Amino acid sequence: NLKAVNPRLIMVSISGYGQDGPYRDRAGHDLNYIALAGILELTGEAPDRPPVIPPVQLGDLGGGALLAVVGILAACLAREKTGQGQYVDVSMLDGLVSLMTMVFLEIGAGGPQRAKRGRLMLTGALPNYNVYETQDGKYLTIGALEDKFWESFCRALGREDLARKEHWRDPSVQEEVRELIRRKTREEWLALLAGEDVCCEPVLSPPEVKEHPQVAARGMFMELPHPEAGPVEVVAPPLKFPGAPSREVLPPPGYGEHTQEVLTQELGFTPEEIQALKEAGVV
């Protein structure tokens, strides 16, 4: 019906399972979607440990909202060429399955035995792409996937012999690295590796994130004025547009705060019509 009125209209719906299929009317939340997509099964420390719930809602944000933006932008480009709008059907489950593309390829190449928690190449199977506990009970990430990074890391540890081993198939290498990392605190390791090109970063707590110099330099936290709560610290918009004029970031509106403006300035209602809507309980 809407398309008949305006053929250029672009509409999008975000749902758990999409507009067709046996689950189209099924209720669900992010945890359910990552479970069905195979993500939850692979998230955790080891096959004999239970799955771990991620702290970020991957389906809501990555499988749903971000893909909806991509779909809308694609529909806008198509409309420029065809003059026709689109209906974009976004399923959060579909989006999550698509994010698993590389995982399914790895399992397809290595066999179903690779599909174990903590045992994929990028989930803990490799010593040069892993999380290690330090002496003070904190953690360090090593992402030295490429040979040049791994060789630099081993050299910084004083164990160049580890770089000559087949670390991708020798589990003893990971145990040796784990034991080495336990000998110093997190800050000692950061100081030691500061001048090395080894893809090493600390595992930060949320309060530590706010104090990190790179996060601070990018202005990723800001204060918004709030009429009731006062200044509120929030995460700033992540996209930077250096060539565009800066815009003020406003706090979220209160309930019904802009109803009058929308009705009069955007929709052209008269004061009498608005009063009638109020008396009828519409606004």
Write up what this structure looks like.
A three-stranded antiparallel β-sheet has the order 3-4-5. Strand 3 (129-133) and strand 4 form a beta hairpin. It has helices spanning 2-5, 30-36, 58-82, 92-99, 101-110, 121-125, 147-156, 160-163, 171-181, 186-193, 206-211, 213-217, 259-266, 271-279; strands at residues 11-15, 87-91, 129-133, 139-143, 200-202, 221-224, 232-235. The chain folds into three domains: 2-114, Rossmann fold, CATH 3.40.50; 129-203, formyl-coa transferase, domain 3; 255-282, no CATH class. 42% of the residues lie in helices and 11% in strands. It is an alpha+beta fold.
CATH topology of the largest domain: Rossmann fold
Number of strands: 7
Report the sheet-strand fraction. 5-15%
Helix % is 40-55%
Counting structural domains, the number is 3
Question: What is the succession of H and E elements?
Answer: HEHHEHHHEEHHHHEHHEEHH
